[in-house]
Amino acid sequence: MGHGHGHGHQAVSASGRQLPRLVAALLIGCVFLALEITVGVLTHSLALVSDAAHMLTDVFGLGMAFTAILLAGRSGPTYRRTYGLYRSEVLAALGNAVLLFGVAAYVLVEAISRIVDPPAVPGLPVLLTAVAGLIANLVAFALLKEGSKESLNIRGAYLEVLADLIGSVGVLLSGVITLTTGWRYADPIIGVAIGVWVLPRTFTLAGRALRILFQHAPADVDVERIASELGGLAGVRDVHDLHVWTLTSGMEVASAHLAVEPHAEPAKVLAAAQNLLAETYDIKHATLQVEPCESTRRCEELSW
Fold first, then answer.
1. Cation efflux protein cytoplasmic domain: which residues (predicted)?
2. Looking at the structure, do residues 185 and 286 belong to the same domain, yes or no?
């Protein structure tokens, strides 16, 4: 049996490189959250309250992202936790998605209760707060953009900041309409729009996290093709028990049994299979069992 060298430390270090940016975005979020909640409560603005709820999930999500990266980086594999705590960032991303679903539901329920008798909302404080929020979100958005490509966890926080960025534009629009026309329905309508806008992105984030937790094959990996190409290697008669999954962002893992011909050299088959997975599919962590064809009977007798 052979074991390819993993690249988990590379994935963890990729997330770790983003820690200073993550901390900066977290601090910006905390400051603006306090401002938005204060103004939203004082002005009875549903648009601001909705955006503040999103900002709360940003702060909480960024905090979870920060904690998850620290856990994954400092607590590597042990004999008790053979994969370390790498999955903590996936759980954090799923937690962010659940929070966003909850925020959207809250805003919709609150907006329905306000449609009958929308409260008067002063436009100027809402407008000024929206401008401050727009600036804060632009800075946080820029800080997290690079890291969102490397880590699902940071991508979750990045999507929340993106939602807040759009939310700030919505609150800005609400403030302008209220200030210039006095139309009371602008605030609850835009509050609902902000809550609904984030849902498709939340579904995508939750789907990616659940795909990893259920250990499905990565979406961009053709497992059937891998089986075919492994089976086409010199000396290989059969490929079975092939599994490909994602441990955490940037860490694809595979395992398989390769039944070989009697004349085949196991070391050469193993090297060829590892090179195929690493060079063609970027799967550098592969556990491959090279076995004689007679051994496949035992595998067929297993219940799963």
1. 218-293
2. no
**8 close to 247: Cβ distance less than 8 angstroms:** yes
In a shared domain, residues 65 and 193? yes
Q: What is the CATH number of the domain that holds 282?
A: 3.30.70.1350
What percent of the chain is modeled with pLDDT above 70?
87
| pTM given for the model | 0.70
Domain-ending residue, one of 166, 192, 213: 213
Residue pair 283/244 in contact (Cβ under 8 Å)? The answer is yes
Q: Which residues contact 228 (CB under 8 A, 6 or more apart)?
A: none
Copy the structure tokens of residue 153. Answer: 């966890």
Handedness of CA 202, 204, 209, 210 (dihedral sign): positive
Cα gap 159→145, rounded to integer Å: 9
Cβ atoms of 281 and 242 within 8 Å: the answer is no
- Residue 218 located in a structural domain: no
Domain assignment of residue 241, yes or no: yes
DSSP, collapsed to helix, strand or coil, labels residue 253 as strand
Domain end marker among 193, 213, 233:
213
> Which residue range is the domain that position 259 belongs to?
223-301
Q: State whether 185 and 291 are in the same domain.
A: no
Q: What is the CATH number of the domain that holds 9?
A: 1.20.1510.10
The token duo for 63 is: 């905090």
Residue-wise pLDDT tens digits, 59-104: 877 787 777 677 766 656 777 877 777 787 788 778 878 877 887 7
Q: Write down the residue that tokens 């900041």 correspond to.
A: 161
Dist CA 138 CA 206 (whole Å): 24
Provide the phi-psi class of 250: left if phi over 0, else alpha when psi is between -120 and 50, else beta.
left
Interval 206-229 mean pLDDT: 93
Read off the pLDDT band of 277 (50, 70, 90).
very high
Secondary structure class of 288 (helix, strand, coil): strand
What the block records as the tokens of 42 is: 């004082």
Taking only the tens place, the pLDDT of each residue in 180-196 is 888 888 888 887 887 77
